[in-house]
Amino acid sequence: MSTPSAAAWPFVYLASQSPRRQELLTQLGVRFELLLPRPDEDAEALEAELPGERAHDYVMRVCIAKAQAARARLMAGGHANAPVLVADTTVTIDDAILGKPVDADDAVAMLTRLAGRDHEVLTSVAVVDALGELLTPALSVSRVRFAAVQSDALRRYAASGEPLGKAGAYGIQGRAAEFIEHIDGSYSGIMGLPLFETAALLRAARIDF
């Protein structure tokens, strides 16, 4: 494998199916190609919590594991070489990790827990450069305050299907925005890809954008 010198890389692999992360990379003007898990990969197993694991440790560990898995996928799949970008987002309240709801009832339970209170949204982002080196991952921490939303409004939102597949059962860029009184931190980080930290990592990996 040839190694880069001073030349920049024209694109990055994005190891994520999230359309929001794709939109945010496009916002930065970054060219990317998707590098998604193969059918034989157990991607969900990477997100399993360890007993007693704190949310900050969890999101960093999962992000690093995703980065390592994506680099292995790249090397095994006959792809052109390039850096790889991964990210992971979780929601935490009362020292508990709120992952993706399994159904609408689970979503309502999570949203009820968030209503009228502050919680944290943690997004870790990592880049493996074209030499296979993991650059120091970044962590974006934001605080979000939910209004004291009535239960019928939460049930209507859950029934829309939007909470499914989203950590904490909501997406700030969607209908849940009406529930959010205040944020302190990174809006793009809450969406799933903190652009300030991501841009710094991509420049460190010599991505041309």
From TrEMBL:
Signal peptide (UniProt feature, chain positions): none
Cofactor (UniProt): a divalent metal cation
Coiled coil (UniProt feature): none
Record's catalysed reaction(s): UTP + H2O = UMP + diphosphate + H(+); dTTP + H2O = dTMP + diphosphate + H(+)
Subcellular location: Cytoplasm
Enzyme class at the top of the EC tree: hydrolase
Active site per UniProt: 88 (proton acceptor)
GO cellular component, one term: cytoplasm
CDD domains listed in its UniProt record: Maf (cd00555)
EC number: 3.6.1.9
Important for substrate specificity, annotated site positions: 20, 89, 173
One Pfam match: Maf
Keywords carried by this UniProt record: Cytoplasm, Hydrolase, Nucleotide metabolism
Gene Ontology MF terms in the entry: dTTP diphosphatase activity; UTP diphosphatase activity
PANTHER family (alphabetical): BIFUNCTIONAL DTTP/UTP PYROPHOSPHATASE/METHYLTRANSFERASE PROTEIN-RELATED (PTHR43213), BIFUNCTIONAL DTTP_UTP PYROPHOSPHATASE_METHYLTRANSFERASE PROTEIN-RELATED (PTHR43213:SF5)
InterPro entries associated with the record: ITPase-like_fam (IPR029001), Maf-like (IPR003697)
Assigned protein family: Belongs to the Maf family. YhdE subfamily.
Domain of life: Bacteria
Function of the protein: Nucleoside triphosphate pyrophosphatase that hydrolyzes dTTP and UTP. May have a dual role in cell division arrest and in preventing the incorporation of modified nucleotides into cellular nucleic acids.
Organism: Paraburkholderia piptadeniae
Protein's UniProt name: dTTP/UTP pyrophosphatase
